[in-house]
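Archive record:
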Amino acid sequence: MSKNIYDEFNYWNKRVEPSSAPEDYHIEHLSYIKKHLDGMKYILDFGPGVGRTFSVYENIERVVGCDISTLYSERVIDESKKYSFEFQLDHTETPDNLPYQDKEFDAVISCAVFLHCRPEKIIGQMKELIRVGKKVITVSKYDEKMKFDIVDIMCEDKHKCNFIYNYYKICEDNNWEVLDPFVYKRHLFFVYKNME
């Protein structure tokens, strides 16, 4: 493994501004998440950042945000006040061992988070989210043309904090069902849950 691979906790607790993306990209994120939230009342937003997904939670009663960074705490709490759901923000230094009960949440949202998870941690992280949620709605970097088994590292910038994974293979190996997958601008949108 490369010595240049970053430490997620230190990186996200020092990075002052979250990244930006084209408006159509965010519209696709929000549209995808919203269509998978029907009937959900209690969700975990894993890595809420500054609350970019909050506008699609209008029918959710309670949202818990869990993040390894404390930098955006004030901003995300202020953003949550614009909406009617009850919001709680938790911080963790151990995202692969969350302080929640098994299947506590109707759904877990993980939007642009897995792409920043180091290769040796990705499977454990995905397992932990499916442990606490009945399903996981996620968006992450992906490249259909790449040939790889589980992981292929992609360092696009000087921070070396972006990774591509074969989510289909990870889900198959862990007996998780993949629902409604599609690729948009090198990002894979999909839901995974335990096989019934």
In short: The chain has a mean pLDDT of 86.
